[in-house]
Amino acid sequence: MVKMESIRQDEHNNLLHNIKLRSLKLLNAVLMTASFAVAWLLVLRNDMASPYYNRENWLIIFIYFLLYIVLGRTYDAFLISYKRISEMIYSQCLAALISDFFLYIITWLLEKHLPNPGVFLLIFATQAVVSVIWSYAAHKWYFKTFPPKRTFIVWDMRKGMTDLIQEYGLSKKFQVVGNCQASQCIADLSQLGGWRLYSLQAFTTMIEISS
Hints:
The protein has helices at residues 2-42, 54-74, 85-111, 117-145, 161-167, 182-187; strands spanning 149-155, 174-181, 195-200, 204-209. By secondary structure, it is of the alpha+beta class. The longest helix has 41 residues, at 2-42.
């Protein structure tokens, strides 16, 4: 009964974790899109050969929003818990740059003349500032809200997994409290008493202490 309650509590905590994290990622996409939206509504749409009505303007903005999200996911721009701040900024700026270029081409087709590149450079500069602020704030909030997971490592061929966690800056994500070789654990399963499987990869198993 106690174990079932613990599982339900874990499921509830994971649900809250996912909701908060996805909301934070959505905020990033909204802020990056807002930089483009302001420029589009105030400047770019006025230079079109046949100006759009409000619905068409918001459709263009929505296209940018979806494009940025797809590219952001492609370049792992939103992996707060696994990426360094500099890596997130780089990935977000890359996604924004490609999105800006794509919309620059669309704007060129709609205006029927080459758009002012200065406007898009200003958009990208604003997005870069937004990315820096968001990445620092999100990184600080995440690790303040979600402490590192107490983790026991079962290794087979890769004994230095603990060192890799430090090397890749994952010490804030995982608090390694112990490790052993897989063959030793198989020979004596009592070593795993009170531990719960956290994740399994090709060369290592991470086991989290159950609360």
